[in-house]
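Structure tokens please, single chain.
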Amino acid sequence: MPKQGDKYVYDYPRAGLTADVVLLDLVEGALSVLMIKRAGEPYAGEWALPGGYMEIDETLAVAALRELREETGVEPRHIEPLGVYDEIDRDPRGRTLTFAYMAIGVRGGSCPAAGDDAAEVRWCRADSLGEVAFDHGLIIADGVARLRSGVRRGRYVEHFVQERFTVVDACAAAELVNPGETKPKQMRSALRSREDIITAPPAPDSTGAGRRLQHYSALNRPLGRR
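Here you go.
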């Protein structure tokens, strides 16, 4: 590997590295994913996930949040690694690997606004996306599957409710993610088994029936509350 000046020169091709974000939320009662309409080639005018190339002086996680912020103007309430996508011909620009993240919700409730490489930004129902750019259909399917699997086990529901919530609140959110699968007894057991969920003092039932309902709260929400 010869060195010219203060730069290294490689004799073999090098792959590009990108970060993409599957940002999911409940919008108008339906599980939805935040999509951008690409302003430039490749796939100009087509819908895709927010994302882009990692800069040389940042980590993949930082790149994912930066690209999401630049292209949509929002930050998520929760984000976690989803997986690596490395099919050889996944990007017509050349050999490119992407590290995808699954994210939930919008911090502070801000409205998405298109910027940078995005001509438009929109919430799209996760179950009726149609054709999307690159291999983003596969990445979205994996993100949705991760979310749905977690919700079945009582995970992630705290990101769809208020800071203090009841089993009824959690079940209402879970039912929108996994229609017809929610069981209150299982949800209560799942919440009580989680170390990052604590019980809060009971509060009166909002219906005025005089009952006092057990409330729950997440110990930490690293990227802000709903």
